[in-house]
Write a structure and sequence with these properties.
By secondary structure, this protein is mostly helical. The chain has helices at residues 2-27, 31-44, 56-63, 66-89, 92-95, 103-136. The radius of gyration is 24 Å and the shape is flat. The protein starts with a helix and ends in a 20-residue tail after the last helix.
């Protein structure tokens, strides 16, 4: 709650510092850094967390990384067989010489691999979200902006 209460002052301080940096860099002719700081000032101008809700579920969900590792390992395990089995049996050179082989097979394998990665990722995202929802019993912070999570704010 303290973070939610203090965020507006924090955002306005970021805007003030970004404007100071913009004029500083403009005085030295560094337009890139000046524009970058102007963009930061525009992004942080008027930011405020208006709805106070329990964001504990989302804070823990964002920090949760076990499923990411599991998805990575499952995708590697599933995709290794797609290309490796042809190399082991030396069918890759034979497939390249057929009429319907070559790049068509390669594109089909890449498309199927991408679809496999998307399906595995979405399945674990659904499982993780449902599990966190059931554990915490609320999704009260779902309408809050992403910067309402303290762990995702810019620290200086």
């Amino acid at each position: 709650m303290k973070y939610n209460y203090d965020y507006k002052a924090y955002a306005s301080n970021v805007v003030i510092k970004a404007k100071e940096n913009s004029t500083f860099f403009k005085s030295f002719g560094n337009l890139y850094e000046s524009r970058k700081n102007e963009a930061i000032a525009r992004i942080f101008h008027g930011r405020d967390i208006t709805s106070f809700s329990d964001k504990e579920m989302y804070r823990c969900y964002v920090q949760y990384e076990f499923s990411s590792l599991l998805v990575l390992l499952l995708c590697m395990y599933g995709l290794i067989g797609v290309f490796l089995s042809e190399k082991e049996t030396e069918m890759d050179s034979l497939l390249m010489t057929t009429k319907t082989g070559g790049f068509k097979i390669l594109y089909a394998k890449l498309w199927a691999s991408g679809l496999f990665i998307c399906l595995v990722s979405m399945w674990f995202w659904f499982l993780d979200y449902t599990t966190f929802y059931l554990i915490y019993g609320s999704k009260g912070g779902s309408s809050s902006p992403l910067y309402a999570l303290e762990d995702l704010s810019i620290r200086r």
